TrEMBL record, chain A:
SUPFAM superfamilies, per database record: PH domain-like (SSF50729)
Domain named PH: residues: 17-118
Family statement drawn from the similarity comment of this UniProt entry: Belongs to the sesquipedalian family.
InterPro entries the UniProt entry points to: Boi1/Boi2-like (IPR045188), PH-like_dom_sf (IPR011993), PH_domain (IPR001849)
Name the UniProt record assigns to this protein: Sesquipedalian
Superkingdom classification of source: Eukaryota
Keyword terms of this UniProt record: Cytoplasmic vesicle, Endosome, Golgi apparatus, Phosphoprotein
Taxonomic lineage: Eukaryota, Metazoa, Chordata, Craniata, Vertebrata
Subcellular location: Early endosome; Recycling endosome; Golgi apparatus, trans-Golgi network; Cytoplasmic vesicle, Clathrin-coated vesicle
Gene (UniProt): Pheta1
Region (Disordered), start-end ranges: 141-232
Annotated GO CC locations: clathrin-coated vesicle; cytosol; early endosome; recycling endosome; trans-Golgi network
UniProtKB/TrEMBL annotation, chain B:
GO annotation terms (biological process): endosome organization; receptor recycling; retrograde transport, endosome to Golgi
Source lineage: Eukaryota, Metazoa, Chordata, Craniata, Vertebrata
The protein, known as: Pleckstrin homology domain-containing family J member 1
Stretches assigned to the PH domain: 1-78
Gene Ontology annotations for the cellular component aspect, listed alphabetically: cytosol; early endosome; recycling endosome; trans-Golgi network
Matches recorded under InterPro entries: Boi1/Boi2-like, PH-like_dom_sf, PH_domain
PROSITE patterns referenced in this protein's UniProt entry, alphabetically: PH_DOMAIN
Top-level taxon in the UniProt lineage: Eukaryota
Length: 232, 119
């Protein structure tokens, strides 16, 4: 499949700030050795370079429809980016081996990668848009009565580092933001969405936002022990 | 230049294009740092910042469809979405005095901060 590689490379190397960057070890495709690469996360794209000074990335992982999981690894602090498609590769990465930095580096990566998808960003934006709308028009939440004053925000259930597990339903006809199809989080990035005819606009009759990818990851900066089912 | 009929699909910040009878896309354009321009009637183009003279032109079935695509594509980038989020966050914070991202536990995320992020 053709890609505008120059534009990709530009995005990777231009001076817009990265959301995360650093050296990681990446396991080779045939489950062999780990290779040290310089990784740069921008938006929903995880680029990797041979060297930090390299002019062009050697590869990119598009972080849509994937899960980021901790690995039980003999090497120590590894995590995996796993896609759903049958032919999809699982990327196993490990933080630099430098004593105390391992765990912190790994957790920082897992966190930033877990929230890197466009879908996630869009969900948060829609939620904020909705809050702003409600505030501006003073919509009553419950039956009759006056809404709570803007200052007293009802907090979501407390808990460290909770991602929006369940956001309220969006209005039936959401504004057409970028006219894009609902991205099925189960499919890997390589799978094409259902064709919807030329000029595919609208949400294909499905106004609800895609569900958040399931999140099985660290909370509050502590490593969570993984069961055997998540061996990679 | 020859016009070829393509099935075009905007998904997140990618514009996929297919031959009309095939299930796999033949190509995709990453829509970051690009400019969407309304050209002549029914036509818009996409060009990229690092190669501005190269235009990917698309002819639509109608002017209305063309406008719809231009609007959608202008908002398609991750960076646009990020700016929207930061904008809404600030607006809500101004109105309520509270950071709306706190309830999701993501207020410290680098990607949602204004200004410089970590190198």
């Amino acid at each position: 499949m053709k890609l505008n590689e120059r534009s990709l490379a530009f995005y990777a190397t231009c001076d817009s700030p990265a959301d995360n960057s650093g050296f990681l070890y990446k396991r080779g495709e045939r489950h062999t050795a780990y290779h040290r690469r310089w990784f740069v996360l921008k938006g929903n794209m995880l680029f990797y370079f041979e060297e930090r000074e390299s002019r062009e990335p050697v590869g990119v992982i598009v972080l849509e429809g994937c899960n980021v999981e901790l690995c039980d690894s003999a090497e120590g602090f590894a995590f995996a980016i796993r896609f759903g498609g049958a032919k999809s590769r699982t990327y196993v990465l490990a933080a630099e081996s430098q004593a105390a930095m391992d765990q912190a580096a790994m957790e920082s990566w897992v966190k930033s990668l877990s929230r890197a998808s466009f879908d996630y960003m869009r969900l948060v934006v829609r939620e904020l848009e909705k809050q702003l709308e409600e505030m501006r028009w003073g919509l009553a939440g419950g039956c009759g009565g006056s809404r709570e004053s803007p200052g007293s925000w009802k907090p979501k259930p407390s808990g460290p580092e909770r991602s929006p597990e369940r956001l309220p339903a969006l209005p039936a006809v959401p504004p057409k933001e970028n006219g894009c199809a609902v991205w099925n989080n189960v499919l890997g990035a390589e799978q094409p969405p259902d064709p919807s005819g030329c000029g595919g606009h609208g949400d294909e009759g499905n106004p609800r936002p895609p569900p958040l990818p399931p999140r099985r990851r660290v909370s509050n900066g502590e490593a969570v022990a993984r069961g055997p089912s998540t061996f990679c | 230049a020859v016009l070829k009929k393509r099935l075009v699909k905007l998904v997140v910040n990618f514009l996929f294009y297919f031959r009309t009878d095939e299930a796999e896309p033949i190509g995709a354009l990453l829509l970051e740092h690009c400019r969407i321009t309304k050209e002549e009637e029914n036509v818009f183009s996409i060009s990229f910042i690092e190669e501005p003279e190269r235009k990917y032109c698309f002819e639509c079935a109608s002017e209305e469809q063309c406008q719809e695509w231009v609007e959608a594509l202008k908002r398609a980038s991750y960076e646009f979405l990020r700016r929207s989020l930061i904008f809404y966050r600030n607006e809500i914070q101004k109105m309520t005095g509270k950071d709306p991202l706190e309830q999701y536990g993501i207020s410290e995320e680098a990607r949602f901060q204004l200004g410089t992020q970590q190198q």
